[in-house]
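ARCHIVE CARD
Drawer: 12
Card no.: 0347
Subject: one protein chain, sequence and derived structure
Cross-reference: see card 0346
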Amino acid sequence: MFLLLIPQLFASALIVGSIALGNINLFAGGFADGMSGDPDTALEAERQWAIGEVHTVSFYPVHKGLANLAPGAHLDRTPCEYKTLVIPYDRTWAEEIRNGSDDTATRPPAPGKRAGFGYVLYRKDCEGQAPEAMFYVGESGAPPYFNHTFLAGDMMGPYVTFHPIVPTENDQLDPRYATQMPYVPRVVELLNAAAGQGDPNALEALHWTNQFTQKLRAALLEEARKKSGQGVPVQAQPTMGASPSTAQ
């Protein structure tokens, strides 16, 4: 079984073979697929999304409205576009709430009640380069489009931190996701359920996330071979001075 020594589950960047892993911070670029260009219509449609309903939306390293305000900048888009699924999810786990320094309370699971929006980053497209497969998951209480900013008259979406998804040898999620980021297993479960029902957006996403997983698994196996031979876990150490990154 692959072992990754991950302080706070990717609080730092990791190097596994030739693959650099770390958190990616991105801005939603506007409306989800099939949404009207009218803000009021878009907001109302998002309120009606069911748990597990799948939509696509693009993310960018810099909020386009802010980029347009930069001196001398006239950007219609950033150099790279990050293809992402948005999946409303419910909280199927108990949640511990800390009240003050000592008191804690437990909230029971609330299945069927929307707790937030999961975002599955599955592909990176940069001009002049081949598409890059990815598998990162983040979440927000906000849908892809939630406000209209006065900054350059642009649309405003959430700012999301995406965390890389690293498989174990038998393709299971690291159990620390369930304890440190419990929304991750739920969002992945809903993604697989949508793909199982033939949703084309979910199937497209799984095509790319599987490519990322296979590439990462191969890097882990090569790392194990180089270190100490078969049967010995890999220890991917955090790079010195690394921190959650904003993609460029």
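Annotation on reverse: The first strand starts at residue 14 and ends at 16. Residues 14-228 form one domain.
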